[in-house]
Amino acid sequence: MVSSAVEGLELAGALIRIEKDPDRFLQAIDEELASDGPEKFLARVAFARAQTWESRVERILAALPTQP
């Protein structure tokens, strides 16, 4: 998977290739398609399944400062 830099992608950093150079973007897509396979597919599916409201709330609560 290839994307431009978008806030929030750090959660899927290992699954998404960030391409900042517009001239290389299409080449990056071709490279990612050529290297794709079942393992990468399963990793993307597992990541997507883990993105539940519960997991989001846990991340939000973890980021909040603790009360004394």
**Global morphology:** elongated
Can you count the helices?
Answer: 3
Percentage of residues in strands: 5-15%
Q: What level of helicity do the residues show?
A: 55-70%
Distance between termini? 43 Å
Given as residue ranges, the uncertain stretches (5+ residues, pLDDT < 50) are none
Please give the number of β-strands.
2
Q: From N to C, what is the helix and strand string?
A: EEHHH
Largest sheet: 2 strands, parallel
Structure description:
The chain is mostly helical. The chain contains three helices and two strands. The protein has helices at residues 22-35, 38-50, 53-63, and strands at 2-3, 17-18. The longest helix has 14 residues, at 22-35.
Give a brief outline of the structure.
Helix content is 56%, strand content 6%. It is built from three helices and two strands; from the N terminus they run ββααα.
Tags for this entry?
elongated; 68 residues; mainly alpha; 2 strands
Write the layout of secondary structure elements.
Layout: E1 2-3, E2 17-18, H1 22-35, H2 38-50, H3 53-63
